[in-house]
């Protein structure tokens, strides 16, 4: 099931880091990874990325792989360069207090579909 | 109101079946549009309403004049019910048309939010089997009304819009290559990548992807190229001595991405092609890279990959993507 980002933020008890970006975004599914190569190779477009990394490359990766938003786990806050690129590329950043497993479980329970793939393209 | 008509196939199987993770992979464009389309974008805004004290005969007249089949009932600005043609028929059978609307109106209200996606409305339609749904805002105030016809019209308009955008993109791309007459036209974009410049890592690939989209490339083609370019760009940043050049060559039938650097070169080319083989430092790994999957990923995204390297000399990586059509968007040419 698709979900609005605002609903995802409520479930994630998330704090929106990119205040200037709209969170009225339709999210088609979810993926989580800390390896950028995994994000690039095993995901489908228009999803939300759940990750523990906060460097600018995460946003670049998300942009190249067509993610619509990023959630940082365990209350992590990104550095200012990361926020800058996110605002420029219109990818909302959210910080959630939950760990990766717990947050993914909560979102999946609420009906968000997995947009991870395990096939070789 | 008890429904008497048999359930349609769609109501029985289609919409009630929960979407599994696997199904999500087969969502088509129309479904995608109906997820992105909001109720407020397709609903009727100017809703004709009535009040509880109005005689049913006047309500019937309103329905007849406006050629509609139902009226929301508003009392002191609040939505209190809905009166439909069926309710009035019931009143007619008992000869009670002079009675007020409140005696026959239905008060169990089925509503959707203006901010909901159209898919929510479609679900509610097939669950409740109603002809129309009331659209409300967060404070439960009536803001519109939506019928299945509105949804069909909205989706058709969105499809038409989508198609037009596609046309414009195709035109733009073919335009560039058709206006410039040569035996073989190639558009070349070059990006200088600095070694160790993690802060700007991915900028070139991001620009490559944007350029391809502007040239009319299909969304999936642009994504594949973007991913391959990104992995290759990070390899230049992580592994080279002096950085290198990332090059994009676009032709109507193919896209060639390549990187060139002057060292240090690769000892064993076969080894670096093995999934998981990595020489990256812990610092690089902490950034989410260097898992030994870069070249493997590139190989997955492109149609042909060639890697040439000699230790002490440098590395050349060529990635080709073929497009079996007249333009960049990957649509098969009609015979």
Order of helices and strands of chain A: EHEEEHEHEHEH
Which radius of gyration of chain A do the C-alpha atoms yield? Answer: 13 Å
| Biggest sheet architecture of chain A | 5 strands, mixed
Instruction: Please identify the structural class of chain B as seen in this structure.
Output: alpha+beta
Within the largest sheet of chain A, what's the order of strands? 2-7-6-5-4
Description:
- The complex is a heterodimer of chains A (121) and B (335).
- Chain A is of the alpha/beta class and 121 residues long.
- In chain A, 35% of the residues lie in helices and 17% in strands.
- Chain A is built from five helices and seven strands, in the order βαβββαβαβαβα.
- A five-stranded mixed β-sheet of chain A has the order 2-7-6-5-4, with helices on one face. In chain A, strands 1-3 form a two-stranded antiparallel sheet.
- In chain A, helix 2 links the parallel strand 4 and strand 5.
- In chain A, helix 3 runs parallel beside helix 4.
- With 335 residues, chain B is an alpha+beta fold.
- Chain B folds into two domains: 146 residues, CBS-domain; 138 residues, Heat Shock Protein 90, CATH 3.30.565.
- Chain B is 39% helix and 19% strand.
- In chain B, a hairpin with a 5-residue loop joins strand 4 and strand 5.
- Classes of the chains: A alpha/beta (121), B alpha+beta (335).
What distinguishing features does this structure have?
heterodimer, A: 121 residues, alpha/beta, Udp-n-acetylmuramoylalanyl-d-glutamate--2,6- Diaminopimelate Ligase, Chain: A, domain 1, 5-stranded mixed beta sheet, two-stranded antiparallel sheet, 5 helices, 35% helix, 17% strand, globular, B: 335 residues, alpha+beta, CBS-domain, 5-stranded antiparallel beta sheet, 12 helices, disordered C terminus
């Amino acid at each position: 099931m698709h979900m609005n980002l605002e609903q995802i933020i409520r479930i994630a008890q998330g704090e929106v880091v990119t205040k200037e970006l709209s969170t009225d975004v339709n999210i088609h599914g979810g993926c989580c990874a800390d390896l950028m190569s995994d994000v690039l190779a095993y995901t489908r477009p228009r999803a939300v990325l759940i990750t523990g990394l906060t460097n600018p490359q995460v946003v670049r990766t998300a942009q190249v792989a067509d993610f619509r938003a990023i959630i940082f786990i365990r209350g992590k806050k990104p550095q200012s360069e990361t926020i800058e690129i996110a605002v420029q590329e219109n990818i909302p950043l959210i910080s959630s207090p939950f760990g990766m497993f717990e947050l993914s479980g909560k979102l999946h329970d609420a009906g968000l579909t997995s947009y991870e793939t395990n096939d070789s393209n | 109101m008890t429904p008497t008509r048999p359930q349609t196939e769609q109501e029985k199987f289609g919409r009630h079946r929960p979407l599994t993770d696997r199904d999500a992979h087969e969502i088509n464009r129309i479904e995608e549009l109906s997820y992105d389309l909001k109720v407020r974008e397709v609903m009727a805004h100017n809703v004709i309403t009535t009040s509880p004290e109005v005689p049913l005969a006047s309500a019937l007249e309103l329905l007849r004049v406006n050629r509609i089949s139902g009226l929301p009932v508003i009392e002191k600005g609040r939505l209190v019910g809905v009166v439909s043609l069926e309710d009035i028929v019931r009143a007619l059978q008992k000869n009670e048309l002079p009675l007020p609307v409140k005696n026959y109106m239905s008060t169990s209200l089925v509503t959707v939010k203006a901010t909901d996606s159209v898919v929510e409305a479609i679900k509610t339609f097939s669950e409740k089997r109603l002809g129309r749904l009331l659209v409300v805002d967060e404070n439960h105030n009536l803001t519109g009304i939506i019928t299945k016809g509105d949804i069909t019209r909205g989706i058709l308009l969105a499809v038409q819009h989508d198609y037009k955008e596609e046309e414009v993109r195709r035109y733009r791309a073919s335009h560039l290559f058709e206006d410039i007459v040569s035996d073989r036209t190639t558009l070349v974009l070059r990006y200088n990548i600095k070694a160790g410049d993690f802060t700007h890592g991915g900028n070139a690939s991001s620009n490559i992807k944007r350029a391809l989209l502007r040239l009319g490339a299909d969304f999936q083609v642009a994504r594949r190229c973007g991913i391959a370019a990104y992995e290759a760009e990070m390899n230049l940043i992580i592994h080279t001595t002096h950085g290198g050049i990332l090059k994009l060559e676009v032709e109507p039938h193919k896209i060639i991405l390549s990187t060139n650097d002057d060292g240090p070169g690769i000892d064993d080319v076969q080894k670096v092609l093995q999934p998981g083989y990595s020489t990256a430092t812990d610092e690089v790994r902490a950034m989410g890279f260097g898992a030994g999957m870069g070249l493997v990923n590139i190989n997955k995204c492109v149609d042909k990959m060639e890697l040439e390297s000699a230790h002490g000399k440098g590395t050349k990586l060529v990635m080709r993507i073929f497009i079996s059509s007249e333009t960049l968007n990957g649509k098969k040419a009609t015979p």
